[in-house]
Amino acid sequence: MKTASATLALALAAGVAQAQLDLYLVQTEDISVLSANNDNATEFWMGTNPSAIAFDGNSLFVGGFLNGPAPQTEDPDNPGSFIPLPWTVSIVKIENFLDTPNRAFRPVPDSRVTASGGRGFTGMDFLPGAGLIAAWDASSFGPDNQILLWDIETQLNPIFEQGGTGSPFDGPRGSAGPAWDAGFDGNGIDFQREDEGDPGFGTPDGPLPAMLIWDAGEPAKRGPLGLNPATLSGAVGATIYEVGTDGPNLFDPVSATNPSTLWRDLDIHPTNGNMVGRAGNEVYLGTRADNDTFSSVVLGPISAGAPFVSGQHAEILHGSPAGDLVVYNDRTGFSSDQVFTDVIKAADFTGNAVALNFLDSDGNTASLPDGNGYYSFSWWEDDQLLLVCDFIARQVYVFSTEAPTSGGCSVADVTTDGTNPGDPNYGIPDNLITVSDLTFFVEFWIATDASVADVTTDGTNPGDPAYGTPDGAVTVSDLTFFVEFWIAGCP
């Protein structure tokens, strides 16, 4: 907690208490297996690097990018020689993502696409009851299906529903991550377009996919296109809204350091419709007045403009302890020595900076590797989790807004290594997961001593509301719960 306290003290000394948010690193997960051997012939190949993620509370969806030499395969007519394969990227679903021992992988149907080097999936968004939408960049407008939609709730295997087609330039380009828009009041948008006087006219039909494009003419490129989820068409007359046709204008060329409509990402608040867009490294923050307009558009603080740098992302942390705020990466270049805490920033919707304190489970400053500034985000409000995907390290950092409640390591850290009953540190966590912890717990479990061995509710599983909540009884569920965390070790 020293970092958080110091930040607050400095702010108070300056006469202004800057808003801040503590984020505790609770897990670090390596997903490099999805880029293994640079072999896009395997069904779980996502690309050379992860470029976009979405989390649904259980499964993580990872979209890939092509960065580096083309994948190769051995020439069957000339053993020992290799020929390049078509470049492809795809989305892979990692089920039970936070429960490492029970993790499973599944390729997402119809997500594998052929892309060129330096391109891949630009963003994804999941909204319960609506589906998973994703965009990938085919380098130009024209190719269809650069925005895609799946039903991921009906069954374990995602169901492909629709790909985007049709615009003044054929298919809309997927150069910026898409987002679900449930309107300024969270009740949805009328996209069925009934005639006046018909049943349903003016009545919201539900959320719709929105996307930003930068290779269309004015005024469309100044704000998002609202698409009909049944068609995902960007054609003139087929969009539900766009700037100039009942659409909000997110672009602010007057205030921007580097006014650009080379859009890279979009996120939309699920209950009030506020939007954040990324272009030229700028952070455009739009507060919704109604479905068609913003009451204000302001900019978040950045170090410099950078219109030709990809991987500039943003995520709205709705319902965080610090209120609704936006987390984003301040990415101005491609060097691999960019400091994590210098790159990842936050702002509120008035454009004021929000301090982020990245902490380990003991409340000390977390140790995170340098990277190339390319990070993608996914926020899960129900569990107060922010997932940050590191493009270059191929890792996902899982942060919680809630401080760990059992020692610094995990619930499996229950005693000091090498101690025995009667020793001063027996029963004192030491930030290590060792055999001593397992022995300590099992002894209390055999004795049915609920003071230590009651760690979860009997019969619950990961994802259940009462999972991890003591119920006053010592059962096999408690032992299973503890052993899973013990096997997983320290994050």
SSE arrangement:
Elements: H1 2-13, E1 20-30, E2 49-55, E3 60-65, E4 72-74, E5 82-84, E6 88-89, E7 91-95, E8 104-107, E9 113-114, E10 121-127, E11 131-136, E12 147-151, E13 159-163, E14 179-181, E15 208-211, E16 225-226, E17 263-268, E18 275-279, E19 282-288, E20 294-299, E21 314-320, E22 323-329, H2 340-343, E23 344-347, E24 355-359, E25 375-380, E26 385-390, E27 395-400, H3 435-446, H4 450-453, H5 476-488
Parallel strand pairs: 1-24
Antiparallel strand pairs: 1-27, 2-3, 3-7, 4-5, 6-9, 7-8, 10-11, 11-12, 12-13, 14-15, 15-16, 17-18, 18-19, 19-20, 21-22, 22-23, 25-26, 26-27
Helix pairs in contact: 3-5
Q: Would you write up a description of this structure?
A:
This protein is mostly beta strands and 491 residues long. The chain has helices at 2-13, 340-343, 435-446, 450-453, 476-488, and strands at residues 20-30, 49-55, 60-65, 72-74, 82-84, 88-89, 91-95, 104-107, 113-114, 121-127, 131-136, 147-151, 159-163, 179-181, 208-211, 225-226, 263-268, 275-279, 282-288, 294-299, 314-320, 323-329, 344-347, 355-359, 375-380, 385-390, 395-400. The strands form 8 sheets. The protein has a 5-stranded mixed sheet with strand order 24-1-27-26-25. α3 (435-446) runs antiparallel to α5 (476-488).
Counting H and I runs of at least 4 residues, what is the number of helices?
Answer: 5
State the major sheet: 5 strands, mixed
Radius of gyration: 24 Å
**Helix/strand class:** mainly beta
Mean pLDDT across every amino acid position: 87
Distance from N terminus to C terminus (CA atoms, Å) equals 18 Å
Strand order of the largest sheet: 24-1-27-26-25
Low-confidence stretches: 1-16
Q: What general outline do the C-alpha atoms trace?
A: globular
**Quaternary structure annotation:** single chain
Strand content: 25-35%
Share of helical residues: under 10%
Question: How many strand units?
Answer: 27
